[in-house]
Amino acid sequence: MRNFVQVAFLGLLSLSLGPELGFTQLNDDSQSELPFQCDTEQLDPYFVVKEPSYNKKTAQLVWTLQARKNVRLPRFQAFITDPDGVEVDTIRLLVTPNVPRLEAGKSIRLTLSLKHVDLERVRLITIRW
Fold it and tell me: What DSSP element (H or E) covers 8?
C-alpha cells in the first residue's frame, strides 16, 4: 500500500512541476542542456541539495548533498519517467564517500550514470530511496 501511495503522490506531483515544489529544471542555458527535470524533494528534510552537474563525456549527473542533521544513509535510486509519466528505468546511484552514516554539515556526492539511458525519452528523474 505504501508503494502505491508513493507512486500516486509522485504521479500527482509530476503534473504540477515547478521550482516551488523542489524541482530543478535542467534545460535552461544557465544550468545544462539536458531536456528533462529532476525531483530531489524527498531529500529536502535531510539534505541541502546543491545544483546538479552533468558531464557529457561520462554521461554522469552528479548532486552534492549536505546533511542537515545526523542521518543514516539509505540506498538512493533514480526513477526515470517518460513524457507520459511512465517509469522507464530505475537506477541505483553511486554514493561517494560510501559511508553508512553522515554527520550534520558533512557532504556526499550522488552520481547517476546515464550512459545506457535514451535521453530523448526522459521527462523526469526522481531521486528517492
Answer: helix 2-15
Beta strand spans in 3-129 (E): 23-25, 37-39, 47-49, 53-55, 60-67, 71-72, 77-81, 87-92, 94-96, 101-102, 107-113, 124-128
What is the model's pTM?
0.73
Of the candidate ranges 28-42, 59-73, 99-113, the one whose mean pLDDT is the lowest: 28-42
C-alpha neighbours within 13 Å on the C-beta side of residue 117: 27
Residues above pLDDT 70, as percent of the chain: 74
| Range 2-128: architecture per CATH | Sandwich (2.60)
Residues of the chain above pLDDT 90, percent = 61
Mapping DSSP to helix (H, G, I), strand (E, B) and coil, where does residue 51 land? coil
- Rounded to whole angstroms, the Cα distance separating 111 from 123 reads 19
